[in-house]
Amino acid sequence: MTMTVFLGVAALAHAANTNETDAAQRAYAAVDPFIGTGGEGHTFPGAVVPFGMVQLSPDTQLKSRKEGYGWAAGYRYDDNTIFGFSHTHFSGTGHSDLGDVLTMPISGAVRLEPGDSAHPGSGYHSQFSHSDEKAEPGYYAVTLTDYDIRAELTAGDRIGVHRYTFPQGKPAHVLVDLRPSMYDYPGKVSWSRLRLRADGTLTGFRETRGWAPDRQLYFAMRFSQPASGHALHNIEGEIPYKGFAGPADKDPRQRAQVEGRAIVGVVDFPATTRELIVKVSISPVSEDSAIANLDSDMPGWDFDVVRSAARDAWMRALGAFDVDAPAPMRKSFYTAVYHTMMAPSLFMDADGRYRGPDNAVHHADGFRNYSTFSLWDTYRALHPLLTIVQPEQRTNDIVNSLLASRRYSPNGILPVWAFHGLETWCMIGYHAVPVIADAFMKGIRGYDTNAALDAMVASASYAPYGGLDGYMKLGYVPIDQEGEAASKTLEYAFDDWTIAQVATVLGKQDIAKAFDKRAGNWRNAYDAKTGFMRARKTDGLFREPFDPSASGYGSDYTEGNAWQYSWYVPQDTAGLIKAHGGDTKLVAMLDRVFDAKIDPKLFAHMEDITGLIGWYAHGNEPSHHVAYLYAYAGQPWRTQERLKQIMDTQYAPRTDGLAGNDDLGQMSAWFVFTAMGFYPVAPASNEYVIGRPFVDRMTLNLPNGKHFTISTDGLDATHPYIGAVTLNGKPLLRSVILHEQIMAGGKLHFSMQAQPNKSWATGNSQRPYSMSTL
Fold first, then answer.
1. Residues 470-485, mean pLDDT to the nearest whole number
2. What are 14-48's pLDDT values in tens digits?
3. Cβ atoms of residues 405 and 348 within 8 Å
4. What pLDDT, on the 0 to 100 scale, is given for residue 512?
5. Residue 639 region, left (φ>0) first, then alpha (ψ -120 to 50), else beta?
6. Which end of the chain has fewer surrounding CB within 10 Å, N or C?
């Protein structure tokens, strides 16, 4: 190669890298962490790195689980009071827990109780103004007006870092409250401990009896300057220390350690203190491990170095997408991408140790261990998205983590809904199975594939779980033995289909045949007389009386009703169409779903059913694939119409811009896929069903170094329909794009028009995959 050619190649490479860096900076600037913190989104605005173990964020209310559904993430935008900054949170869940190691800076007098937000000054909480808040990926700041303290937060994988700027002339304090829990506050702490070590490090632990029982978490906290005093309190029955006259070792001002169920500590600093850095690490293993994590993840005291590292981590993650779209769409899109990278979250010390579902300590050999698996939600779109943008970096570790969890599970099955290593048994299905199957079918196989198949089969064969005994014997879950039986039958059948796909590739024909048959069990729930999926009794008869609008506990369905669940056959939509009597009849039923006029009060008893368009409930996952089903019936232009209807009404770049709980990124992953123009209706099929694009142009900067560009012409409000699609310059005649086509790099181009194209992708051979044919 001549020097001239070499310099030319180098210049092109430099230009490409510069462009990607610029795109990453623009992506970072577009994120608004406040989106979803109002309404029903249940997101938080605090500091976290991609998939980090620490999620450091303000808590604006301390409420019990029974009254605190809206505060599942600890924060709601319509509040004006902060009770402190805790180090663990869920992003967008419909259930609450965590809120560990609540830390509050205080100037002046110290109160040990949090108080009531309705009564300023009644406790250690402080008022704040949104005009003083700032949030960006990896950073949060706010002024605590009652104390005139500026609080800044940033984070690393296992650390949270606080920078407090105190007013002059008042004693400075840092309060640590181990009582609050977002599951039930107070009363769910089994035991806790605070210990002030000789070098000034504050360590502790607590065990909570919350959503995941007997959860243990340890921490270590250091301060950038020596303390001038301290007090460690056990609030239960303790004599107020101002009048303390007992032994010195019992004096809260003197003792170095305290244990109990109601522990609060206060560390004091001189009135001359202006800036104080507080760094906190957490560990699932021990206080000593938390100290080791602190030493490993932040040996120094430079807050801005940690903030810059968090920014760089987010720029790399967000830089997978280079989007050209109007500013509101860019904000919504990149914030959605941001929310898809909160979970699963790292759950492992710097030395590789973690706590498993048996509550024992294990070591992750050759992988990074993750937990926080909201699998009923995230198998649908979040995990398929990660197979595109983080296949090797993250997805292999996620699969290895699922398999490790199964190894140490007392029941020998994969996680259902797990966090901090522990199982909650929340929701239905065995949806770790499609997560593994989807990765496997896409060639992501950095794990023992035979062990993976064994784990999948074991989870699908564990008779005591969720009516599986009856399902395996009868081909459906009997409602007189197990609640929500129709939903369970349908979801088990899909999971079974994904097992069959993996077994076929691995040459396990007996397993493939058995689970392919089980994948057809959805037919046992279909009632041809009503056109709905219903629950049968052990005697084979459908349960009566039947009301398709009925939902909730005691019904045939999980977080939905017959109108929402009767379309859940992603592995065999062609079979569903045939059962209904053809394309026209299925389309008519889908139209009845979207066009129905219903009273939203019908779902007042179901917190999760939100984002209603007729019966369609975008705020909950069973509806997420429904708009794409028109494409299976040969009417992709109807999918295009419905997607615009959903995007226009269910998402917005506002604090209340999510129609329902983000559910650890699933709502956001739906948005990301749909904005690109396609969606994974059936994970493990390696197909993405084409909807329509919502961005002018986008480049996926793939981890394999290739680039996949999505472009449009004529995209505006007056041109909502696809006229034609090309892939690498050639007409794309099917309403799908394959995973391998994306990962190979290339160009997908949409020509948009004002009127629907009723001839594109309508033929049977041009439709998405189904296990049976029309």
1. 98
2. 555 666 788 899 999 999 999 999 999 999 999 99
3. no
4. 98
5. alpha
6. N
- Name residue 155's beta-bridge partners: 160
Structural domain boundaries of the chain? Answer: 41-314
Tokens 């001359």 map to which residue?
A: 272
The DSSP annotation for 227-274 comes to -SEEEEEE-TTPPPGGG--S-GGG-TTT-SEEEESSEEEEEEE-TT--
How far is the C-alpha of 682 from the C-alpha of 434, rounded, in Å? 9
Q: Which pair of structure tokens corresponds to residue 196? A: 């002030």
Containing H/E element for 59?
A: strand 57-59
What backbone torsions phi and psi does residue 551 show, to the nearest 5 degrees? Answer: -145, 165
Which residues are bridge partners to 216 per DSSP? 207
**Long-range Cβ contact pairs of 441-444 (< 8 A, separation 24 or more):** 441/501, 441/502, 441/505, 441/684, 441/685, 441/686, 442/387, 442/391, 442/686, 442/739, 442/740, 442/743, 444/387, 444/391, 444/392, 444/395, 444/396, 444/399
Is-contact 610 555, C-beta < 8 A? no
| Cut 0.85: pTM above it | yes
Asked: is 41-314 a CATH 2.70.98.10 domain? The reply is yes
Q: Is the pLDDT of residue 3 over 80?
A: no
Q: What are the tokens at 732?
A: 């794309």
Q: What is the dihedral of CA 534, 538, 540, 542, to 10 degrees?
A: -30
Contact 120, 114 (CB under 8 A): no
